[in-house]
């Protein structure tokens, strides 16, 4: 019984990671996002994925932003941070 718990946990984690990894933009897409946003004056700090959208943490004019991009890599929502 003790061995089944770690095995079950390992299987649950193994099933969860492929789904999370597939939602992350690939390296080429991340490079395009970084280049596009740099052209708009942003400094990209981190690219992630949330709720089926690409989430980018960036800085522009000394202010931090959370930018949400759609599948066409267009900003559809932005939130200014602190």
Automatic annotation (TrEMBL):
Keywords: Signal. Residues 1-21 form the signal peptide. Residues 8-78 form the PepSY domain. PROSITE patterns: PROKAR_LIPOPROTEIN. The keyword Signal applies. InterPro entries: PepSY. This is PepSY domain-containing protein. It comes from Defluviimonas salinarum.
């Amino acid at each position: 019984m003790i061995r089944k718990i770690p095995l079950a946990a390992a299987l649950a984690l193994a099933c969860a990671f492929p789904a999370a990894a597939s939602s992350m933009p690939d390296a080429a897409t991340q490079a395009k996002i970084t280049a596009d946003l740099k052209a708009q004056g942003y400094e990209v700090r981190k690219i992630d994925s949330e709720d089926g959208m690409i989430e980018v943490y960036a800085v522009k004019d000394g202010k931090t932003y959370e930018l949400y991009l759609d599948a066409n890599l267009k900003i559809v929502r932005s939130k200014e941070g602190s």
